[in-house]
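Incident log, support desk, overnight shift.

02:14 A customer reports that sequence design results differ from what the structure should imply. Their input is reproduced verbatim below. On-call engineer (initials T.W.) acknowledged and began investigating.
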């Protein structure tokens, strides 16, 4: 068991009910500092509900969420971001008419506290622009800085989302299906980027692409009907008969 100081994120007996329907049932989850962790499970397993509770989109019915040792169960979404919890979404939420640079600069400016000066674009601040360009360079997007989002291939749009999340300097990064809708060649690029992210950032991905999961994750949690079925390293998960019955077998025939 990890000592509390080694945990980036933890849930304790987390539950969510919608009337008589239980979608998260007593979830105890631990994300270690610097972890590379994946959350998998069949459709309807409660994965998105779980992430929405972590980020504050949904309040839990009971239980606790602890970020870096602090109970954030009642903390608002924006305050969780400021405390180091970053997220990307299954369907990207980028400003399609703005450039790549301006999309990332908005996040950097927000973190630096200059985002409310609306009479200037975020990228017009030298320090914001420089940091944003440096971040884009680390993700292999420097040559695309001036491109509008709508003109980028979808795989690069997903990388811009990751850049935006990193612009907020998270200690925990939640990636909701980062390879969804991305061709296989581009999904490998996303994996390379994830491999090169700073090691101090704890990363949790929700992903249906098992190639991505088993190449990325050092630890996997399997969620079924709102409960943790099993958790362990990839080699154990790949051999677990219960996981094959409820999920991996389904993936092979999808």
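02:41 Re-run completed on a clean worker. Output:
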């Amino acid at each position: 068991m990890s000592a509390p100081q080694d945990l980036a994120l933890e849930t304790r007996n987390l539950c969510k009910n919608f009337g008589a329907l239980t979608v998260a049932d007593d979830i105890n989850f631990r994300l270690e500092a610097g972890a590379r962790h994946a959350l998998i499970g069949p459709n309807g397993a409660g994965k998105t509900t779980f992430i929405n509770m972590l980020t504050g989109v949904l309040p839990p019915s009971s239980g606790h969420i602890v970020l870096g040792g602090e109970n954030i169960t009642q903390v608002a979404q924006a305050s969780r971001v400021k405390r180091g919890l970053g997220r990307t979404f299954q369907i990207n939420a980028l400003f399609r008419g703005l450039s790549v640079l301006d999309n990332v600069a908005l996040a950097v400016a927000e973190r630096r506290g200059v985002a409310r000066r609306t009479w200037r674009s975020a990228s017009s601040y030298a320090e914001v622009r420089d940091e944003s360009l440096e971040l884009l360079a680390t993700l292999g997007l420097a040559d695309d800085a001036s491109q509008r989002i709508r003109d980028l291939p979808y795989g690069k749009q997903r990388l811009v989302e990751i850049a935006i999340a990193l612009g907020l300097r998270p200690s925990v990064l939640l990636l909701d299906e980062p390879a969804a809708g991305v061709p296989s060649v581009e999904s490998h690029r996303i994996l390379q980027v994830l491999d090169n992210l700073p090691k101090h950032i704890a990363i949790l991905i929700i992903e249906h692409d098992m190639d991505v999961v088993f190449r990325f994750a050092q630890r996997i949690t399997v969620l079924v009907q709102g409960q943790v079925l099993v958790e362990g390293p990839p080699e154990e998960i790949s051999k677990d008969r219960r996981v094959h019955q409820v999920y991996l077998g389904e993936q092979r025939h999808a």
